[in-house]
Amino acid sequence: MEALKTRGLDSLQKRIDAAAxxxxxxxxMETAKHxxxxxxxxxxxxxxxxxxxxxxxxxYATFDAYTSKEIGIRNQxxxxxxxxxxxLEKEEPVYLKQEYSEGTDTAKVPSYESVDILRLAKNNKNLxxxxxxxxxxxxxxxxxxAREVKKDLTALIRERKELEPEEARSQQxxxxxxxxxxxxxxxxxxxEFANYLPISITKDIETLIKRVEDEVDDAG
Length: 220
Fold this sequence. Notes:
By secondary structure, the protein is mostly helical.
């Protein structure tokens, strides 16, 4: 396994050397070589490549092909790096400042997996601002492992759902009504196509569908 890793790094280094006439392309490969310890820099570089579609200038039809063939990173990892960096830039820009990187214990620098979990937590309606701040502290100040953070987050979301039974019931009600509405629409079309019922009854069904639609709109 170590031999394969070494060969992979050697191959990447050859591509780095070959790209000496293209500083940006060379820079991305250099950051990829060390991304375990400097993933933010790689995320920033990949974001530029993805946003400006630089990979096309370098002979790759897709971003996926570029990341896998040129810098040896799977598309799933590359996209997670992009999302994590973009999230920090938008929501937590202080952690992108150079002085933070230089003044923080490397053991506490958050991984891109942890930041991606924080991103998901930010958009989760079951969590409030206090939950988010507590999670952020665990990730940025304590440097907790992504697996531990994800486990705690899952438990917290489950707890919040249990504490809000009325909201859960409301969501279940709305979901059931929407399924019922979809079924009615499909059956109405089938009945009209086959001409199984008088027009007067078909109109009654249409009126009922409209009433249910209004109920969904009010609930939404």
